[in-house]
Amino acid sequence: MVKLPIYMDNHATTPLDPRVLDAMLPYLKDEFGNAASRSHVFGWRAEEAVERAREQIGALIGASGKEIIFTSGATESDNLAIKGAAEFYREKGNHLVTCKTEHKAVLDSMKRLERQGFEVTYLPVGKDGRLDPDDLRRAIGPKTILVSIMLANNEIGTVQPVEEIGKICREKGVLFHCDAVQGVGKIPFDVGRANVDLASISAHKIYGPKGIGALYVRRKPRVRLAELIDGGGHERGMRSGTLNVPGIVGLAKACEIAKAEMPEEAARLTALRERLREKIVRRLDLVELNGSAEHRLPGNLNLSFAYVEGEALMMAIKDVAVSSGSACTSASLEPSYVLRACGVEEELAHSSIRFGLGRFNTEEEVDYVADLVVGKVTKLREMSPLYEMAKEGVDLKNVTWAQAH
Amino acid sequence: MAYSDKVLEHYENPRNVGTLDKNDPSVGTGLVGAPACGDVMRLQIKITDDGRIEDAKFKTFGCGSAIASSSLVTEWVKGKTLDQALSIKNTDVAKELALPPVKIHCSVLAEDAIKAAIADYKRKHGTAPAATGTEK
Ligand SMILES: Cc1ncc(COP(=O)(O)O)c(C=O)c1O
């Protein structure tokens, strides 16, 4: 028997890898020095650990250690990259380009800039969640200073064509920020090949600790940012604050493991994901895959189960931790903006479930979850007036529904 | 979000799931909500000659609280006269199930479903528009 509950929400966060914890422990105990202390061995040892960590993190993304700035997480990295670049390069222009399916840390940073007089273009995506590079090319104008596009989407796992995007940005002479949080350590990503100028990463999405992240800031050609936090001038003046040494060591160890194990782990997760999908769609009708079949994170499976509401399904499989694009999981009553941007109809957005497979999921768990989902969807459909109507041949689009939200 | 024990209990053992013949003159059907909003409730009631609800069935597309709300009202309306059933308020449902504020709309939908089912029955018997007066 599998052990319950089963964690299958690895896009939200990941468990700490025990090897990461082991690497961190000395820095939570005896090695407590402040990396900025120049006058004694405690400080020197902490600084050594931080510098080693920078190199390990850089190595995963093809950067040098000097290009890594530590932050409290990717939310801060996104804020610093976008607001910091916008402020620093304001004289050059006031236009930024992003995409409708970006994380809120990007979209809400853009919204704030709009209130301050910047102009932002939000690019659409196709049904598969990918943007069209030609749209990007057309959106960039003489006043454009920054393009921010993610590597991979946190809901539907769609991988964006970052190398093409980087090429266009380089050609046009605009900065390219990439929120690489979901893709880094899972799929190949190289800041050189993709011509990325700024990249956000977060430890807790790659089996590292929470509360630590990094921003890659290109040195050649040099990218400048206005700081958001004033203080002691740490991190080349871009991010003041005493460094979180245990967190940094943990992030570095997480990067090292991800780099070493990526090919096998990606293949294993892709196989698990396909097994899960196969076992579900073979036994249930009216199941839609959200996102791209081809350009997809290995561990992401996002499915809509027509005529079943996502939160009800999550409740039915409560021993399995997943998430839903249903409105009911948020206070807003609006279903997922990511699915809506992909043109998924509202009813199917309400019916979506995101399975996020990770390093510690097993085949046994996948089989258990597939059986459970098939059983519960069948049961909920027996309870669904919509399923009954659809089976009777009623076209639900022709029904006049009583109530709008 | 955590669910109350009562919601969980109804969700896990929903009462009176099913379908009555919507063409039967003694059956009233209420279909409320919209798929795009993530909630659709169908409540059906079967009414005796002397105006009592003798049976009730539901089917619901919606979250656990919506399913629990509909399950609860099928229990509540059984044995009641139409007037008594019409006096069931969404606040009673919300209170009984300890619904949090974001789920109040589920109880509103349940009240609407009762009204809609009764209105449908009255329409079949030529006493529409609903919600005013009774046949007594
Ligand atoms: C794509 C993406 N960007 C940014 C973030 C924010 O990361 P953090 O939790 O480290 O602030 C997340 C995580 O929720 C994410 O998935």
Structure report:
The complex is a heterodimer of chains A (405) and B (136). By secondary structure, chain A is an alpha/beta fold. Chain A contains twelve helices and 13 strands. In chain A, the strands form three sheets. A seven-stranded mixed beta sheet of chain A has the order 2-8-7-6-5-3-4, sandwiched between helices. In chain A, strands 9-10-13-12 form a four-stranded antiparallel beta sheet. In chain A, strands 1-11 form a two-stranded parallel sheet. Chain B contains five helices and three strands, in the order αβββαααα. Chain B has helices at 5-12, 64-77, 82-86, 90-97, 104-124, and strands at 27-34, 39-47, 53-61. In chain B, strands 1-2-3 form a three-stranded antiparallel beta sheet. The longest helix of chain B is centred in the C-terminal third of the chain and has 21 residues, at 104-124. The A-B interface holds A 307-309, 311-312, 315, 326-329, 331, 333, 335, 345-347, 350, 382-388, 396, 401-405 and B 1, 3, 11, 14, 17, 19, 31-42, 59-64, 66-67, 102, 105, 109, 112, 116. Pyridoxal-5'-phosphate is lined by residues 73-75, 78, 103, 105, 150, 154, 179, 181-182, 202, 213 of chain A. Pyridoxal-5'-phosphate binds at residues 73-75, 78, 103, 105, 150, 154, 179, 181-182, 202, 213 of chain A.
